[in-house]
Amino acid sequence: MTRLPILPLLLAVHVLSVILWIGGLAFVTTVVLPALVRLPAAQRIPAFLEIERRFGLQARVLVLVVGASGGYMLMRLHLAGLMAGAHGLWLDGMVAFWALFMLLLFVLEPAVLHRHLRERGARDGEATRALLLRGHAVLLVLALIVVTAAVLGVQGVG
Ligand code: HEM
Q1: 140: CB partners within 8 A, 6+ apart
Q2: Helices 6-27 & 125-154, crossing angle to 10 degrees?
Q3: Does ligand 1 have an atom closer than 6 angstroms to the CB of 62?
Q4: Is 65 a pocket residue for ligand 1 (Cβ < 6 Å)?
Q5: Does any domain span residue 1?
Q6: Are 146 and 97 in contact (CB under 8 A)?
Q7: How many CA atoms lie within 13 A of 157 on its CB side?
Q8: Is 67 close to ligand 1, i.e. is its CB under 6 Å away?
Q9: Is 54 domain-assigned?
Q10: Ligand 1 centre and the CA of 14: distance in Å?
């Protein structure tokens, strides 16, 4: 009986989850946040929070799947030792970016960020939208660097 190719399948699940997660981040950054200027200033942040609430659940599930599949591959491929050296920086980057999103989605957003955004958005909808756009743009650039580093790292570059 042929055995299931677990590791290649997990890599596919890992990469597909990254595509959906970072694709959503790119859509929010390059389409949703810029389009909000068409709404009256007072409606911009409530509209953003409604859209974000729907994507937030997807993002949480995807981040958990990326972490579980990545952690299992890390263990099975015996790559953890590589993380301490310069040749494992691409792995450190993936784990650090993942940990940042775990903190954002599971701790900061429910605890403080949403309330803070709602209050700040009621005072100045446009300044809050611009701040959100800058924050999302930074996260998107970081994501693109992490994905590029991962692909190069797996190929043994660096
Ligand atoms: C706990 C977090 C993570 C862990 C432990 C992890 C671990 C891994 C491992 C072990 C591989 C396979 C390496 C190999 O085939 O030799 C991999 C591949 C990959 N990871 Fe992650 N990862 C994590 C998070 C992320 C994040 C946040 C991103 C992007 C934002 C990412 C993007 C990728 C990509 C694109 C590949 C495929 C590279 C290729 O095969 O060309 N990973 N990851």
Answers
A1: 22, 25, 26, 29, 30
A2: 150
A3: no
A4: no
A5: no
A6: yes
A7: 6
A8: yes
A9: yes
A10: 7
Which pLDDT tens digit goes with each residue over 100-135? 999 999 999 999 999 999 999 999 999 999 999 999
Model confidence at 136, pLDDT cuts 50, 70, 90, reads very high
148 lies in some domain: yes
Distance 113 CA to ligand 1 centre (A): 28
* Phi, then psi, of 95 in degrees rounded to 5: -65, -40
Evaluate: CB of 95 within 6 angstroms of ligand 1. yes
Mutate which of 69, 154, 157 for ligand 1 pocket (most atoms within 8 A of beta carbon): 154
Residue with the smallest CA separation from ligand 1 atom 10 is 74
Whether this model's pTM surpasses 0.90: yes
124 domain-assigned: yes
Domain interval for residue 24: 6-154
Q: What digits encode the pLDDT tens for the residues 13-72? A: 999 999 999 999 999 999 999 999 999 999 999 999 999 999 999 999 999 999 999 999
Specify the number of domains making up the chain. Answer: 1
